[in-house]
Amino acid sequence: MIAEKISETTKRHFPMELGINEKCANLDDVFIHYAEIGKGDPIIFIHGTGLDCRMWEDQLMYFSKKYHTVAYDMRGFGLSGRLNGGKYSTSSDLNKLMDLLQINSSNVVAHSRGGRTAITFALEHPEKVKSLVLGGAGINGLPLSNEFKEIKYEVTLIAQKLEIDNAKRVWINSALFASALKNEVVMKKLREMLNDYEPWH
Fold first, then answer.
1. Are the C-beta atoms of 38 and 66 separated by less than 8 Å?
2. What is the domain-level CATH number for residue 57?
3. Do 156 and 135 fall within a single domain?
4. pLDDT tens for residues 145-166?
5. Which residues does UniProt assign to the signal peptide (predicted)?
């Protein structure tokens, strides 16, 4: 039954020579694209807004020497599908993915929007989280900083005018990516992911 819900994928994020396995998991209402490499204790990586599992390439390769590393595209990002209407839960998506991959509990590393998913998941399923590492995580119930509110307002305003490319440009050049702007290699990868992102959230 589980094997039937995991399938090969024709589209890839990573070069074949890296040895990263990429597959598609059927969560019933959506297909989730994921990448995995290595054996051992699992680490699951969750990306932030406008990005996808490509942001974790270096971490996948480094930690796969001792761990079973997994990164996935959240619903509506990267190569994963989206739900046309209806409610969904990103923490439920993570839970279903872990069940399909037969991962009983895992270390979880998450960034930004992915951090919000990870926190919710840890609260709902504490027995499935060995450790939690968060970077710039959003936390439900806490007010946003004024700086973030301003950025979000500006990006939303531009996007509502259907100037999506403009909105992406404002987003990636905002203070949120200040440290990344100093590294051309990192910025190149971020731009590639953001260019591929089709905003619908």
1. yes
2. 3.40.50.1820
3. no
4. 666 566 564 556 555 555 667 6
5. none
Helix (H, G, I), strand (E, B) or coil at 1: coil
pLDDT in tens, 62-118: 999 999 999 999 998 999 998 666 788 999 999 999 999 999 999 999 998 899 999
The span from the CA of 192 to the CA of 201, in Å, is: 19
Q: Does one domain contain both 97 and 123?
A: yes
* Domain match, 25 and 51 both: yes
98 and 68 Cβ atoms separated by less than 8 Å:
no
Helix 90-100, helix 113-124: angle, nearest 10 = 70
- Kindly tell me the burial class for residue 176, based on how many C-beta atoms sit within 10 Å of its own C-beta (0-12, 13-18, 19 or more): middle
Residues paired with 124 in a beta bridge = none
Query: Which residues constitute the domain of residue 156?
Result: 144-201
Model pTM score: 0.83
> Cβ neighbours of residue 113 under 8 Å, at least 6 residues apart?
47, 48, 49, 74, 138
Tell me, yes or no, whether 159 and 104 share the same domain: no
Give the 3-state secondary structure of residue 89: coil
Calculate the CA 189 to chain-centre distance. 14
What is the tally of structural domains in the chain? 2
96: left (phi over 0), alpha (psi -120 to 50) or beta: alpha
